[in-house]
User: Fold these one by one.
Assistant:
Number 1:
Amino acid sequence: VSLTVRIGQITALVGASGSGKTTLGRAVMGLKELSSGEIYFDGLNLSALSRQESRRYRAQAQLIFQDPFSSLDPRLRVGDIVAAPLRRLPGGAALRAQRVKEVLSEVGLPDYQMRYPHQMSGGQRQRVAIARAIVSRPRLVVANEPVSALDMTIQAQVLSLLQRLQREYGFACLFITHDLSVVEQIA
């Protein structure tokens, strides 16, 4: 496969179950070792990055998982889940808390910091997953079938939210799905 995902765009990767969409997404995120080929980010070959460069890349690329039920740690509160990518952010706890509050408000979940995932619906959990992905202002978001576990009404809301956030933040988005109607809406 050969593709380009540009800043400010949503690029859809469509294919049948078992065709390798998730494997490619995991490889882009550095979670799957390549058996052949190369993946580049800003001209850098991801396979050849030093440890420090790899850490910098991971800070610029975030993943939204398919299943909002299993992708959130049930032992952590929403505020801690969303703050996780900000661990190394300079400025301390107050700055991190402010950023978490802003992002939760942006995804329509103000005042949800103290809730646990089991206290939320599937759509709310997916909004938390989106908030976690964008809180560090990444340049690339890989969205791996982020609406497949949601009913149609909630799917439309989450797709609209993702489009709005992508426009506001300007990140590149690789949107992985098997559903052509979703692609028609978002990419």
Number 2:
Amino acid sequence: AALSLMTIGIAVPGLLKSNNALIPIISMVVGTLIGELLDIDSAVNKLGEKLQKRFSGSRITEGFVTGSLVFAVGPLESGLQHQHSLLFSKSVIDGVASIVFASTMGLGVALSGITVFVVEGSIALLASVVAPYLGEAVVNEITFVGSLLIVGISLNLLGATKLRILNMVPAILLPILLCRFMG
């Protein structure tokens, strides 16, 4: 619970970035619709279930999905703004969280490290390549949407909600288009 609250605290500065409330609103609604149509959450859960069958663990799916979600958040700001403090802070929290998660959810948490490495590395690299072409307004709106997802993850970890955060992930990309037409 303490780690979840700390994660919310890390997200708060990003929630101050938006300059046009309609952009994150539309991004979240349309992005979630896209994610639901693609059913990203189910695909990741199915992968976790396959791993669970392969390794005969009781909570591998839960550990894999939880670890993948929690640990993969943070590289956007690092890549877009070359500000690595969020990534470093999240790494410390993630290190402690991985020990706690692994003690209750087992091997799935360790297996999530593979997806985290691929996803986090890809996001950070892609963000650093495209950042010069996006402009400050787009970066601010992406940061805001990403921060909302971090809060959602934290609320899930606290047991307050059961949001399908993976299905909301496409919302992060929509400010790129929306800022062109609404910015």
